[in-house]
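Reading a protein record of the kind used here takes only a little practice. An example makes this concrete, so a full record is given next.
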Amino acid sequence: MSLTKAELERYKRHTFLPEIGVEGQLKLKNASVLIVGTGGLGSPIAMYLAASGVGHIGLVDFDVVDESNLQRQIIHKSKNVGKLKTQSAAETLKDINPHIEISLFNEALNVDNALDIVEQFDIVTDGTDNFATRYLVNDACVLSGKVNVFGSIRQFEGQVSVFGTTDGPCYRCLFPEPPQPGIVPSCAEAGVMGVLPGVIGTLQATEIIKQITGIGEALIGRLLSYDALKMDFNEIKFIKDPDCKCCGEKPSITGLVNYDAFCCSKPASIVREINVETLKDSIENDKSPVLIDVRDSEELKEGFITNSIHIPMEEVAKRVHEIPKDKPVVVYCYSGMRSTRVIQELEQKGYTNLVNLRGGYEDWETII
């Protein structure tokens, strides 16, 4: 395969670089990259890889474009709200570079399809926002012998690393076990600065191009952390764990597992719940329960349910005396995950009167 005259003109700022040249640009043209998630991180990754001339890009996503995505997911346009994210992203990528091939997987990556999809590509990059998929991507890459260029974001901070190379560590070497559910809020709950995924996603794209062309020093065994508020980068070095369950000397993970169960994506124990419609009726009929809002202070700026007592999740233990045991109490956060966790912990302290607001403040907003 060679570069056409049009491609030579398009990529000449690359080919002028001695480290890349025509040979490196041909490597990009012959390469294939799978992008898991076409959201905040997937947007800049896909756009820069397309512009750089990566010949085959795969997009995995099951979601549709929502108005709230447009603040940071720059690959999507206002006109595409309601459209499948993969289709919306493909439109933009074709406008950027008509010379590339795009494969769409309009589905969630899961235990049943991950290996089949991952094995079709040279490199995988993780642009997801949940732990179950991160561990799934890691394990599928290790089992398939694929490099995994990782990125994550939350509020004003982000991380980047390269996992799954021949002699390098994998994600599980650094994070053997996921955090308990509700401890780390998602971007939907905690928020994210709009430009942050642009920084982290561009760094991921840089590492992918370096992997394909074989130039530079990769972020292997190095976790690069970025703090947008301080405009500061820090690096943590780590090594391949010989006892790693996935990539160690005697791995116990020889196939994909139930990642939702492993990551406790849903709390194990069941708590009583109330939906927003029932709560609204109770409030309107002067039968309102005690309302406990466990979101953080920044989230309150988005609004709150009138007469709520604000006790951030991390302060519940020291302010537990403010939560009555002799009255009906409804606990809520943004989506219902953190409040469930709070209720589980309080029930261990003898509380029997706590109810979770199903869907949290996110659902409450839909009826006010």
Remarks:
- The two ends are 59 Å apart (CA to CA).
- The CA atoms of residues 50 and 97 lie 6 Å apart.
- The chain has two domains: 31-262, 273-364.
